[in-house]
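User: Run a structure prediction on this.
Assistant: Running it now.
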Amino acid sequence: MIDPLTPIERRVYHFLLDYLATHTYQPSVREIARRFRIRSTKTVAEIIQSLAKKGFVERPDGRSRGVRLIGYSTIGRSQPIPLYASVNSVEPSLSDANRLRYITMDRALLPSDEAFFLQAPDDSMQSMGILTNDLLLVDPTARSSDGDIAAARVGSSMVVRIIDHRGATISLSLPRSVDGEAVGERVLGPQDDFAILGVVRGVLRAALRDGSGDEEGVPERSAEIVSD
């Protein structure tokens, strides 16, 4: 089993990823040392060597910028996906004002080009594997079927519920009780102020870490696919 990255190894690895995406070439050992206030370039070289042993990078000998990120996917095979933390009380339900950031994903993992992420607002769907602040991958183009998990705007609130269609109305409810009855059910019709944002196709668990993150405006985290 490969040893996990240490906090400084993780920060250097993320720096290498971000630097390459911005500059199209890798930083030198001295630039890494300056970025993390490491006095010795030998220490930086040892960190990079450890990253290589753990399978994250390769580094040909004798090259200052020779680090190669193993498995790095160029923008040609990936797509930035917007992440929204809230919804608007009027249409459009989603806008730039409530967009937190973009998360780049391999296109092979996306249900559609229009997909977006929402932050789960609470633990009400915990029994379905969804916790507060989980990142929900939502497909707005999918036609929802009875029993699907859907993201919806109800008034000014965002909710994640199980959807059922009943003629001109829909039911949004929590997972059913042991006797099969709908829990927390809300039936919505043409007279109600709501919008179905899309069908939830995946969940990313955002795990807080012990180090201080470099990402602007968000805590350091690791993403783990927990359901789809």
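The chain is about 15% helix and 35% strand.
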